[in-house]
Amino acid sequence: MAHPSTTSPVATAPDKVPKTLLSVRSVTKRFGKTRVLQELSLDIAEGDFLSVLGESGSGKTTLLRLIAGFEACSSGEIWMSGERLDVLPPYKRNVNTVFQHYALFPHLSVFDNVSYGLRARGTQSSEIKSRVDDVLAMVKMSAYAQSRPANISGGQQQRVALARALVNRPKLLLLDEPLSALDANLRRQMQLELKALQRDVGIAFLFVTHDQEEAMVMSDRIALLHAGELEQVATPEEIYRRPATAYAAQFIGQTNLLRAYVSAGIVECGEMRWPTADTQGPACYSLRPECIVLASDLQEDTGAVRFSARVVDQVFQGAAELWELECPSGIRLLMKTSARREGSETKFAFLVKDVVRVRA
Amino acid sequence: MSSTIETKARGLAGYAGLVFAFLYLPIIALIVYSFNGGGVGGFPPRNLTFDWYRQLWLDSALWDSVVNSLIVALCAMVISIGIGLPTALALDRVSFPGKAIFRRLVLLPLILPGIITGLSLLMMVVLVGLKLSLLTVIVGHGTALIAVATTEIFAGLQKADRAQEEASLDLGANYWQTFWRVTLPNLKLPIIGSALLIFTLSMDEIAVSFFLIGRDNTLPLEIWSRLRRGMTPEINAVSTIIFTFSLAMIVLWYRLRTRSGEDVSDLVSAATEEIL
Amino acid sequence: MFSRAYKFAVSLPPIAWVLLFMLLPYALLFLYSFWTVTPAQQIAHQWNLQNYAELVRVPVYMEVLFRSIRIAATVTLLALLLAFPLAYYVSFYAGARKELLYQLVIVPLWVSYLVRAYAWKTILGSDGVLNTLLQYLHITKQPQAFLLYSPFAVVLTLTHIYTPFAFLPIYAAMEHIPRRLVEASHDLGASPMQTFWRVIVPLTIPGVIAGATFSFVLSLGDFLAPLLVGGPSGIMISNIVVSLFGAAYNWPLGAAISACMMVLVVGLLFATERLEKRWRVA
Fold first, then answer.
1. Number of compact structural domains in chain B
2. 8 Å CB contact of B276 and C276
3. Separation between Cα atoms, residue A354 and residue A292, nearest integer Å
4. According to CATH, what is the number of the domain C55-279?
5. Between chains, do B106 and C261 touch, taking CB under 8 Å as contact?
6. Chain C residues in contact with A150 (beta carbon < 8 A)
7. Structural domain for B182, as ranges
8. Burial grade of B82 (CB within 10 A; 0-12, 13-18, 19 or more)
9. Nearest to B201 by CA among C163, C169, C18, C111
10. How far is the CA of A232 from the CAs of A51, A221, A226, A229, A236, in angstroms?
């Protein structure tokens, strides 16, 4: 079975295939005896908003630190724009980081924080002033140029951290869970702002997060990391509709994992049957709860799989309801329905095209 | 990582090594020469011998002073902790007029040169009409070292869980019972730690003792008076022993501190902030 | 939460002790400075400012005071030059051996002052280790006299003693710097050298001020090292005080000098406290 490939960037006009900016090639990272990243390969295109998604311990922060230069690869290479990146120290890379807890310099004003990188490179002070003013306006922090980090709120510190990184016009911006310290409302607001900012500025963003909703909202592509390996790299829609593995299916959104058996072109799962081109043998399938409908609601008959079940539990979720179904064979399924119905239904269905085979 | 970082680190490491050498070579020389047959000085050391240590063993005046020092150190320990404990408690929990000045005053002996503390106590002793003796030395050490106990115990109080005391009161124990059964046990480590430190500092103390000493000498002052008369290798020997002993005490103190999970540098920065 | 009885019991003994054994003695020191000593070697409780006038009038006091300040300042400077890079190394580059190295720096602090000063005496003497070593290596032909019984020896000894004192607050300040800040600085394009000057040094200044204050104040008031290794040319202000309380028997004058020293020290403490507060950021 093929390893989930690094998919080439999708959803762009055919004549404008973006160039690859950063190439992580078979990178492995060990800390002592622990292997945190295993032969990882990943490409980032120019202008891409790529989220690296994973739970804690998946290696996503390590990957970010390898690209930033704070750690060295145990094996493998990292290339950027046709040159080897991983042999350079962090201060020679055209990459900037927005740290999780901002890491603003407490002894410097907002202005001095933002201009830090420019000053380190010996930029003219007139140019410094104009660039810093511009970027502060972009993050809406112009009024606070002379304040100290201790005197501004967390959300404001985050903007300053962003400005400090962006003003250097890096080719790639790394963001290490920058929104995790913000409260829910501010978070949502910042997600949209960041996305808009990225589009305006056109810099490639590598955004590390453990929040799958956040990744879905913001990214052009998602790289799902699990125990140091890439589960899948795809657009949010593709990763949701066509998860490559059971882990991907379960990590993003909710799903039903059906353990089935394929024989002679037919998938058998409990009392459900549907045709398939997959090879013989045991197989695992993912079926999203919203893809299960009441049999009576089904428009067409072709490509539908019907089955009987009884409603065991109903959970009200506001706009939708979550039903737990139990089939005669004992299989339990989650179903999402929008209308409020009595739980007396017994006949359900789903479309074959909504069932996705996943690697277990 | 680039080579400039490596060379810089090597240069820095070399410098650090030089500083360590500067700090330790004199002491090592001292120890080595305590075994030197030719006495103090001369290079290279020859005739390694235990003679000086043997002489030391038979020196009764020296041993008397050791006993005196021990008495002083133990009594000073009691005083310093006996006053230092309520001081820390007061600083932590009670507000009273003049508290800021009180705090500075308590910490002053740590940073004032010993001569000032010693002289001022001497004047008071004379005013009161007391004769100079080990007792006056004890008072001197006890007073000067209160700050050590206060700093450590205060740090311990800051880390302690106030809710435990509240729980004790809530369950019906009165203030004294709470103090003995809850507060004090929680302060066990800081108290023992500061006791060790005070003991060691008192055993080595000269500046304050210089002015408050009577007929009976403490160990450092005994050594001092011999030094004024001339150097003997015996002094090397006793210095080596003092060094080893202090070393053991400090390692012990350090183990205790880090066992309680505390960072010693935290303690230092807390003390620094208090003083300045 | 605490009853009045508890509060009284807890604060009264310390306050009483401090009043009796600290405030009163220090005050006495001041009082004495305004008295005189009669020709019959008695202390006369006559209030006057003669002692202070004498300090200003007779040149030797000022000379020795300035020499003491020079020595103390030199010691402070040297101690900082030694302690700062050492602290930087141990804090940022020592890795797994950090704890051990830290302990190694602290140990000399608690090992008898006398032992360490004596060690230098044996090393620097004409027959001492250094001179005989230099002759053995044929670097010099005769013992170098300036090594011992000179201001040089005093500075050397005091530097040796107070470097760990300076190290402690500097190291503590460095430990408080979050490592993320160093990474952020590198990330933004600053080399380790630039990071050192722009991030680490500014954030360490409060520690440096504290270390410098300790070293300066304690060196200034030191009288043991000069007695051991200073010789006549290495006399410091506290030695004069000691002799005034000893053979020279003029307690009021000695008290006056001590009072001046005390005012100087307390004034310095206030000044550095303000300075430190201005530099303290986090």
1. 1
2. yes
3. 9
4. 1.10.3720.10
5. no
6. 281-282
7. 59-275
8. middle
9. C111
10. 12, 10, 9, 9, 11
Q: Per the structure block, which two tokens stand in for A142?
A: 């112009």
Residue A249 in domain: no
Q: Is residue A320 included in any domain, yes or no? A: yes
B8: chain C residues, CB-CB within 8 Å: 192-193
Smallest Cα distance from B12 to chain C, Å: 6
Q: Which pLDDT belongs to residue B2?
A: 42
Q: Is B128 on the interface with A (CB under 8 A)?
A: no
> What's the pLDDT at B42?
61
Q: Name the DSSP class of A296.
A: G
Residue A8 pLDDT > 50? no
Q: Tell whether A62 is covered by a domain.
A: yes
Picking from A70, A117, A148, the nearest residue to C183 by CB comes out as A70
Identify whether the C-beta of residue B141 lies closer than 8 Å to the C-beta of residue B204. no
In the chain, the amino acid numbered C264 is L
Residues of chain C contacting residue B105, judged by C-beta atoms under 8 Å apart: 18, 22-23
pLDDT of residue B228: 78
pLDDT in tens, B237-265: 888 888 888 788 877 877 777 766 555 65
Spatial CB neighbours of A21, under 8 Å, sequence gap ≥ 6: A44, A45, A46, A48, A80, A81, A171, A172, A204
Q: At what angle do helices B99-111 and C4-18 cross, to 10 degrees?
A: 40
Q: Tokens 């002489």 label which residue?
A: B55
CATH number at residue A286: 2.40.50.100
| Residue from B1, B3, B7 to probe the interface with A (highest A Cβ count within 10 Å) | B1
User: What is the domain-level CATH number for residue B200?
Assistant: 1.10.3720.10
Q: Answer left, alpha or beta for residue C86, where phi above 0 means left and psi between -120 and 50 means alpha.
A: alpha
The sign one gets for the Cα dihedral C195, C201, C202, C206 is positive
pLDDT digit string, tens, across residues A114-168: 999 999 988 899 999 999 999 999 999 999 999 999 999 988 999 999 999 999 9
Domain boundaries, chain C: 55-279
> Is the domain of A107 the same as that of A142?
yes
pLDDT tens readout for residues C115-151: 888 888 888 877 777 777 777 787 777 777 777 788 8
Among A242, A269, A290, give the residue marking a domain's end.
Answer: A242
pTM score: 0.83
Structural domain for A98, as ranges: 20-242
Q: Are residues A230 and A309 in the same domain?
A: no
**Which chain B residues touch C85 with a CB distance below 8 Å?**
12, 15-16, 19
Could you tell me the two tokens for C147? 């090594």
Neighbours of chain B (3+ CB pairs under 8 A): A, C
Which CATH number covers residue A39? 3.40.50.300
- Positive or negative torsion for Cα A213, A218, A219, A220: positive
* Cβ-based contacts of B246 with chain C (< 8 Å): 107, 110-112
Chains B and C form CB pairs within 8 A to the count of 277
